[in-house]
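User: what does the whole thing look like in 3D?
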Amino acid sequence: MSTAVRTSSKARRGSARGGAGWASWQAVALVVGALVMLFPLYWMVITAFSGQGALTSGPLRFFPEDPTLDGFRRAFELLPFGQFFLNSTAIALVAMALSVTLNLLAGYVLAKYRFRGQQVVFVMIVSTLMIPVQVVMVPQFQLVAGLGWINSYWAVIVPRAAEAFGIFLCRQFMLGIPDEVLEAARLDGAGHLRIFWSIVLPMSRPLIAVLVILTFMYRWNEFAWPLIVLNDQQLFTVPIGLSFLQGEYGTDYPALMGMALLSTLPVLVVFAVFQRQFVEGVARSGLR
Amino acid sequence: MTTAAPAAVTAPVPGDPPPRRRRVSRDTVAAWGLLSPNLVVFTVFLFVPLLATVWLSLYSSSGFGPREFVGADNYTELFGDSTFWRATANTGLYALLTVPVSLVIGLGIALAMNRPLRGRGVLRAIYYVPYVISGVVVAVAGRWIFNENVGVVNRLLRSAGLDGVPWQSDAVGAMGSLVLISIWTKIGFVMVVYLAGLQSIPAEYLEAAQTDGAGKWQRLRYIVVPLLKPTTIFLVVLGVIESFQVFDIVYVLTGGGPGNATEMLVTYAYAEGFDARRQGYAATIGVVTYLFIAVLTALWYRRQRAQEADL
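Assistant: Here's the predicted 3D structure for the full assembly of 599 residues, as structure tokens:
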């Protein structure tokens, strides 16, 4: 293409033909890549449905010999995972509702209000993205202990309620809401919360989908902080339970993989439900 | 708040144009009101603990009993602590390996996917799924799949006539499994963000370049990659910050081992603060980690700004 001098129509035809072959190579590469990405999950699934020790020796098999649910049953017998699921669900739902509400409010204010100190507030919020959770964990722990919140869900929920990444997404998305719409509502006499509730929120559905997915995911998956503030086994979340299962029954691979898969299901369901809106939301949040 | 804010909140200053001034002020009050829940949580649970971390780094404290002021002793000890330097090097290596590789692969997938394609939604979901799985699940699965005796990776290698890799007993092997697993989890997010970026590139640019005879690699090199630069900056900054915060996967997969071959800054801080109960020393590691991130981010932004100024 680069050497020969061609007429532009020839060049276009040439590249279209080359493009078709290239495109199918890319499609093949995409599918092969997807299989590589899927393999660990596939291996988790067949392990979960295999008998103990079935996949650790003998000839390498890619299907379970005698499918069984024993792994799942053992996991629930070894540790009270039913309770852990209830705990995780309660924490994730409450924390998600709280975080999403706070994110939206802050994003709205930072995108649509003009006031002194606004830039400072925005920069300070975004700069918290750089603080690793573990850096402030010791004083946070002392603070939460001082409040008497050790072994309470509040210790998990409240300190993480305000969250910079979500606020940043909300601001970027809401900058795209036209000022005229808000101004019109204001002239009609709508108050600040009324405008937020009946105009801004309905226009932010894709954004809310992104926030719901991401926040639910963060809260459901969170490990280090709950591990520190929850010591009572009755209050454990699923990831803590899983790490204990790993620590105490580390070679019961069917039980481990069964529970690992079950603990991933809620996030997958939330993701599947909101998937389409999620991609639109990412695109429009200026996440690029 | 749905009713008008009380008129008394701002006494109009004589000489100012009253109506306009008052409306601005009322908005200001509403803005701070709507922001206040966030500001309270940030202040109490983040800014105050951050300052307390700096303060605590000057003390020796076990969390029980009295703490003792030790001045800069923690910092002196830290700079002579070989585990700390090992953790710093490991964290840097982890960032250097996972960020560029996941960006290149993620961009490649996004480019291949940025067209009408049958099964596009399914493919996108497959690539994205590892990103939504928790670090603990990923690590628990990684321990099984990369187990050097019974794991499927080594069994496949052996059945191909190769030697199994010592994923647990060897320092390089352990870091290798950690990096491979992390890349697996990161690709999907990079892909989704790059896809969003690609969709914002006007098709006319590419068509015009094609008409002018630019091949696909030239279009990629001179049009697509430069136009994606803001996306890349965002992903690099986020990736580096994430690398300095990697905890769950390391804690469950290797526990920092063998020896301290995969010890990271934050896993070391956790071990010192909550296992060894040396809270002042843990706070010191935290302060230095934070400084590393702040300096790196600042340098990167300066470099980007300098490059933009050159153009």
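In plain terms: The first strand of chain B starts at residue 59 and ends at 60. The CA atoms of residues 31 and 128 of chain B lie 37 Å apart.
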